[in-house]
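Q: For a teaching session next week I want to show students how multiple molecules come together into a single three-dimensional assembly. I've collected the sequence lines for a complex. Could you give me the predicted structure tokens for the whole thing so I can convert them for display?
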Amino acid sequence: MSGLRSYIFKAAVRLLFFLVNVFALYLLLRGHNLPGGGFIAGLASAIALVLLSLAIGLEELHRVMRFDPMRMAAAGLAMAAVTGAAPLLFGRPFLEHFDAHLTGLPLLGELHVGTALAFDIGVFLVVVGIACKIMFALGKSTQRLRALVAEEERRYSAPVEQPIEEEPPIRAATNPSTPSPHVS
Amino acid sequence: MNWPVAPILLPLFTALAALFWGRPGVGRRSLVAGSAAAQLAVSLGLVCATLEGRIFVLGLGAWPARFGIVLVVDLLSALMLALSTLVALASVLYAYAESPTRAEHPLRAPLTQFLVMGINLTFCTGDLFNLFVAFEIMLIASYALLTLEADDWDIKHAFPYVGINLFGSALFLSACGLTYALFGTLNFAQIALRAAPCADDPRLWVLALLLIVVFGIKAGLFPLYYWLPNSYPTLPIPTSALFAGMLTKVGVYVLLRIFGTVLPHELAFAHTLLAVMGGATMLLAVMGAIARNFIRGILSFHILSQIGFMVLAIGLFTPLSVAACILYIIHHIVVKSSLFLIGGVAMRLNGTDDLERMGNLWKRTPWLGALFLCQALSLAGLPPLSGFWGKYLIVVAGLEQAQYALVAVSILASILTLFSMVKIWNGAFWTGSDRVPVRTSDWRWRAMTAVVAGLTCVSLAIGLGAEGVVQIAIEAAERLLDQHAYADAALGFLGKTAANPIP
Amino acid sequence: MDATELCVALALGLPLLGSPLIALAGRRLGSRVGWLALAFPLISTGALLTLAAGVGRMPRRVVEWPWIPTLGLNLSFLVDGLSLFFGLIVSAMGCLVVFHAIFYLGRDAKHAGRFHATMVLFMAAMLGTVFANHLLLLFVFWELTGIASFLLIGFLHEQKEARVGARQALLVTGSTGLALLVGAVLVQQVSGTGRLDALLSAQLPWEQHGSLLTAAMLLLLLGAFGKSAQLPFHFWLPNAMTAPTPVSAYLHSATMVKLGVFLVARIYPLFVEAEPWAPLLGTIAFTTMILGAVLALLSHDLKAILAYSTVSQLGYLIGYYGLGPADGVECDYLHILNHVFYKGGLFMIVGIVAHAAGIRDIRQLGGLFGRMPLLGVATLVAAATMAGIPGTTGFLSKEMMLKEIFGALRDHDALGLYATACVALTSVVKVAFSVRLFANIFLGPMPSRIQRHFHAPSIGMQLPPAILAGCALGLGLFPGVLDAPLRALAVEGVNRPQHLSLWHGFTLELAVSSLVVALGFGLYWLGERTRWRWHIIPRALRFDLAFEAGLEAFSGFTVRVTRVLRSDRPVDYLPILIAFAVGLVGGTLLWNLPRLAGLLMPDWTAVHPLRTMVAALIALALVGVLVLRSWTAQLLSLGVAGFLTCFYFVLYRAPDLALTQILVETVTLLLVLLLLARFPRSAQAGEEARRPAPLRRLFHALLALGVGGTVTALVLMVTADPHPEPIGRGLLEQTIPLAKGSNAVNTILVDFRGFDTLGEITVLVIASLGCLGLLMRYKRTPEEYRQGPLGPPGAGFANEPEE
Amino acid sequence: MSLETAVLVGVMFSVATYLVLQRSFVRILFGFLILTNAANLVLLAMSGRPDGKRGPVVLDPSAPMVDPLPQALILTAIVIGFGVAAYLVFLLYRLFLDQKTTNAADLYEEPESNS
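A: Of course. Below is the structure for the complete assembly, covering every listed component.
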């Protein structure tokens, strides 16, 4: 009974996830001419992911996603920066954009494809990546799960560090106002 | 043509590469160090080129100033770039000497490079809102570094730092808005042209004061400096050297730029305010330094005290005093960073930087002592070390302006600086105690000392070869104050619109 | 490079370069490094003698190399009689002292390299000071001597007294040196040059800048007083005696402390006719003179006696210039030379005695003549010279001194009288402690403690003081020898050489002199009779204790100031900042209200009803955040305000903003919700109970209202009359033709101002990295807290003095 | 001039300032969130009164439109504000875990009595 309901719920969320992402893509592509753009699309997409995580749980989502959203964000930043730096190769100023006008496309009608779009996609990736990363990290950590998986811990922390979800050190736990032991 | 963007892009790409690389290793270390060296090389190249009178202007996206953002690198900017990249290189190398690869925090390298990117962008940008963005890059990177390797004891001192700077950012953003409404533009050069006729408009005065508050927070002026002295000592030593050397000087640089290039020169009351705040800062902060009894605490307060000197020099606002300020900045960045690094070596040797429990260093490590003595006396402004020339010019400018009280305050602050430096020297280097260990067994402290020695050589060169540096500073000051040349250069970039000029 | 340049370069440059070389060689050579060090003063002496031989009655010569021409400062050296005289003293004494120090330090000396390197550095700095031809260059070398002296005083730095003494010397001479700097800058500004040759050959503009010049003179003299240990700075000199005795002999009697005298002589022609010159120098110097002599008599430590007598003699030398006439003083060289002979010698002797006997307290010494006859004779001569017994240079000096003073008695009425009294009294006291110095060390029975400890000093150690004593005696007997060189070295306007002879006939001076000697012996006899019981320096005269107490008190004061400024109370930082910002910006607004009133008048016709309503609702929701008690309710209220803000953006025709705001608001609220869910409910209840005191809340409310009011005024002020040509209009026009997009906001974001966007996404990436960094804690064990590799985190926070 | 926006900005700044001066983490956090929005509204006020104008999407070049630049700046500022807010949330979370408190007064030994 409950299994069926949760199955329906999950299916509905998946459908919603798909729809929101399509909408986000649409927002991203039309951004140059109508309200929208990489940032808005990225946030919409991130919210869709959050919805999905609510439905299937953070652990499960991590299994499904299989990649580190932080890397996606870094890739997005790299994409934006490389898009900007590409004109340097031709001796043009940093961030100069070039474009082409495409007409007669299905669904979208006419489309303006330019390096500005690549830049905007970079923005999109950064926003999706970091919004997901911080939401998931905080969500896991506040639920007393390990915020970072082992591989991420290797990448984002020093070997001598420990996750904060554990009990804090003795000194802080007792009373923050006690002087540190090295003085007494 | 694209050179001004190189000191910003190089750190950005280095940070990204380091992020993708993941774990620290020898390869990643060499990459970051190589990039830091390349940044320094590019900046030195910019200094050489700007010395010949060139001003680099780059409209990003090929847009001229009235549409987009321009980066403008004049002599002062190039100097600041060279200094920031120099200190960043020293900090990187020192960090490598200090800790083995496996103990390095993987995020330190990318965050440091992001910080350098923000700092460099601040020096290059010719646009007020872009300056805000640069500040935010710098600030958020500094927050992240402040809490990166913090333990439960350190972490709480990050909180006031973050809080005060958040408030400052909100004020800065509001100030950007006000500027846009008043002048209809955000470009420095255009603001300069449009603001020139309104020197006696009270709205401009209020804006100038608001900007003093905003940048006074960053620079660390008297009632606004509280975020600094307790937060810097919680940083790891190489990072603290970078912070100590660069972050507050960014504020001073922006004050110089805003009052020298952007706002009209007739704002006498704002200059007086700056001078008075500078005087108060140098005296009260040096008293704070005397009240501290651990090296990093003393040095942190000294940053502020020296900021007082620089801002006093801006406040006097003559070409000579502005040159003195620039000279002082050049000296201070190098000396203060190396003092933090020397403090770090001393801490490593003694196992603490609490002066009550240090000692024996002069006997055991005379080289370190000689380096400290050099830099400490330079900081106190004893001749012929680098700190003296800036101070001398400030005294000359102050006496020329008949600001006897401020000159007296600066002399007093110098004496007190000397006093607190002697305090460190007596406590850490001269005190002889059997109970204080000096751990000279590993090689790391030698490597660390070698990095410091490099910086000390630079500072000695500044002091003994003052002729060249003084000339550069005077030149930089003249160009900074030449608003028309700046505006002509910045607005002369036409980019995409060159072919079909738009009325 | 001609001969003069070569000589100056050899004399000054070689030791400067040689100093680090000695330090480096010290590790290899050990104690033998002293012989290497000796080469430098020898070369300097040779070079200077060569110069002096050629000087004749030649006017001053300037030798110059460029250094910082932009500041008008070159390595410019003035070679004249005065600089040569002082330079020769410095370099010749340098030879003797370094020679002495080689034996004094002994074979197994540690850190001999450092010692000799600093000595040679000091000598170079001294030579630089006396030859400097620019006030600023003089200051540079002047402070360098201070640094070298700091290091030398603190050579035995493991003793606390050495550290304290070194700090005192550095602080006193360093800070008075800064006064000298300001004085130099003033002179430079008033007269347009800081070059001494130019200054000396022109007139200072007293008419236009009288007060500035007087101030400059006072500041310069302040520097001289500090260096030469004049009242009230006299206290640092005795405490500097913790240095090894060669250092004391060189720095603190023969050379460095004479820099003040040198400076006074240097600027004598410039300022002698100034109104306060004579009274100022006369009063302070002669008071120092008598005070120093009395303190010397009251001291028991051998070096303290000598130190105070040095203070006294320096007082005399400076006061002498104070009373001089406009065309120069007589015999100043003689006095200086005389002092170098006996005081330098006596310091070395004292060092040898302390070395040999292991005691420096004069009350416990005695009977050493039999063991050290050569030294005894040298001491006898030196003490006789100090006392002014005929046959020594001391006698000549005293005769001349008295003659001059009687002259002064005629010229300056009250001051002359005071000076005469001081000189007479001082001479009596000086005889007394000179006798005591010789008699109580060398005569009488030898205490058993010394007999046990005694070990004979090497002959090399005794040679330099013997040479100095020999000079004092020889030149005292045949003073005519001095005539020619002193005449050759005389500088016009500073000193007028006098023919010197042993016998002047029965004059008033001779009578007074005899009386002085008799009274001095009487005073000594009195002291012996009372066993020197009354010889304690009164607390009121212990300026050094007062100085240390003052430093201590000042440190305490700084702690209090720092606390009063709330530097260590993070919760107060923001209120202070906001109060300052509001006071500054809001205050200026109020101040200029009359001029701004027109701009601030609200335009009621422009109020839009729908916007006003939404604004009111937002304000209401925000007030809800303020007054609601539960976190959830506050969060809801905040959310409502946020979403209403989106609507407000819509009303402002900003669709992109509204979309962004609604999404950002959602994500932010989710984050906050996650955080709040983790905070314990108990904390929420607890917070209500511990709200700040009502007064503080009122203060915060006032600050808040101030910020709000100021911002409102600012916005009204600038929007009332915005700039007619904002660049936004151009962007709107060009978004389609140039950026090929109709959404101007988006074209600005990705194209026109794409760099801002690049920066903004960089901020996002950095922020999330910062967040990740916060999720891992650097954890130290308690053991590491105690002695971690990098020391305790936040060390010093817990070390506040109150605990 | 837009009076209602100016007053609203003032109210937002006041409320935000009062909140950030409090000791409770939650209130401080809310204060900074409001502060960011308030600064954005200052920028918005600079685009002038929108009455009778259209949004900055150029469909009909002859129609009067609002100034797009402040809006673009606000967008940038919102994003930056979001990043900083996220960092602040994490910082408060970490402070709470380390110091076991949600009150800034507990972080620093504060002799409340003599203030």
